[in-house]
Amino acid sequence: MTARKRVLILCTGNSARSQMAEGLLKDLAGETYEVFSAGTVPSIVRPEAIKALAEIGIDISNHRSKSVFEFANQQIEFVLTVCDNAKTDCPYFPASTRLIHHAFPDPAAVEGGEEERLAAFRRVRNEIRDYLPEFLNQIEKE
Fold first, then answer.
1. 142 assigned to some structural domain
2. Which of 10, 55, 71, 141 could link 86 by a cystine bridge, Cβ 3.0 to 4.6 Å?
3. How far is CA 75 from CA 5, 79, 97, 123, 133, in A?
4. Which of these, 78, 65, 62, 57, lies nearest to 17 by C-alpha position?
5. Residue 71 falls in the annotated catalytic set
6. Domain count of the chain?
7. 64 lies in a domain?
8. In a domain, 69, yes or no
9. If residue 37 lies in a helix (H) or strand (E), which one and from where to where?
10. Is the dihedral of CA 129, 51, 99, 110 positive or negative?
11. Hey, is 99 helix, strand or coil?
């Protein structure tokens, strides 16, 4: 059996966008790819991210925010940066690692009541979900 290729989704805090993208990509292509997420400055997994994915049947409640440096000595075929800061601050990966960037708005930056914040997480969740087939198409050509 051939080993599954590994995808690391990278953001700044590993609290929202990268966590949702990890859950969505595992749901979409988890049989084909090993999927992880991390942050350049890890923090916590936002409860709104957990709730937004739970609404569509994906459970990330056991996820934790991880540092990109946890993956420093591991073979990673694809790194997807989902925020501009992570693209800028992305540490060195071997030349064989394919870096792909697609920025999404930061739902954690939205202020207001719980409903406004959750609505922002839902919008970004949907944007990520809509983008991932394009991402898979791009990496499957590699």
1. no
2. 10
3. 9, 11, 8, 32, 23
4. 65
5. no
6. 1
7. yes
8. yes
9. strand 33-39
10. positive
11. strand
SS3 42: coil
pLDDT tens-place string over residues 32-85 = 999 999 998 999 999 999 999 999 999 999 999 999 989 988 899 999 999 877
Active site annotation includes 101: no
Q: Which domain holds residue 85?
A: 5-137
In a domain, 41, yes or no: yes
Token pair, residue 55, equals 């609404």
CATH number for the domain including 83?
Answer: 3.40.50.2300
Residue 72 CB neighbours (<10 A): 11
Catalytic residue among 7, 8, 9, 11: 11
pLDDT, position 94: 63
Provide the 10 A C-beta neighbour count for residue 133: 11
- Whether residue 1 is predicted with pLDDT greater than 60 in this model: the reply is no
137 SS3 class:
helix
Question: C-alpha distances in angstroms, 108 versus 6, 24, 43, 71, 74?
Answer: 27, 18, 12, 24, 29
Residue from 49, 82, 83, 118 carrying the catalytic annotation: 83
Q: Is 55 a catalytic residue?
A: no
The one catalytic residue among 28, 41, 90, 139: 90
